[in-house]
Design goal:
The protein is built from 6 helices and no strands. It is an all-alpha fold and 182 residues long. The chain has a single domain, classed as Up-down Bundle (Four Helix Bundle (Hemerythrin (Met), subunit A)). The chain is globular.
Length: 182
């Protein structure tokens, strides 16, 4: 199965662009009208977001993307490879957390990076299924680099960062820089 099929099924969209009968309707979360949740799920209260916090996150993400681009543009040995992977990790973290703040302000409730990526795709911040595939691969690689370290894996992830991820993160930083809170 191709990953973008997952996104299509998640959003209930057919390949011709129409909705399937079992489509999922994404409705904004409203703290004034809490959703009915099963008794075992904790209810989170979302506080109104300070716009200054979003601006700080935007700036952190822009700086991180710039630093990642700087690392990718250099050639070097193991130390540079490891530095590039580290910069990728904190750039990815800044990306999804910035998107999370924006989506929370728009009424979506996303608690983790996978949910944020799904909602960013639904909102149009991630524009194509192919781009969504790259973002999911980034999430998987970020999880791998965070929890384990193997030389061969580091080489593969560093190559992915140079070939695919850095450009997507820099592109998203440009889109995020243009976002304004209502």
């Amino acid at each position: 199965m191709v990953r973008h099929d997952f996104w299509a099924r998640f959003l209930g969209v057919r390949s011709d662009g129409g909705l399937t009968p079992s489509h999922i309707v994404l409705t904004p979360f409203s703290p004034s009208k809490p959703k009915r949740l099963p008794g075992w799920l904790p209810v989170r209260t979302i506080k109104p977001m300070d716009p200054q916090r979003f601006i700080q996150r935007q700036q952190e993400f822009l700086r991180a993307a710039s630093r990642l681009q700087e690392a990718v543009s250099q050639q070097g040995g193991d130390i540079l490879r490891d530095a590039t992977i580290q910069r990728f990790e904190f750039t990815f973290e800044a990306a999804w957390k910035t998107l999370q703040l924006f989506l929370l302000h728009q009424g979506f409730d996303a608690t983790g990076p996978r949910q944020v990526l799904k909602q960013a795709f639904a909102f149009g911040l991630i524009q194509t299924p192919e781009e969504a595939d790259v973002w999911l691969a980034m999430l998987e690689d970020r999880n791998l680099t965070t929890h384990t370290y193997r030389e061969a894996l580091a080489e593969v992830i560093a190559a992915n960062i140079r070939a695919h991820y850095a450009a997507r993160l820099v592109d998203m930083a440009g889109r995020v820089a243009a976002l304004k809170l209502d």
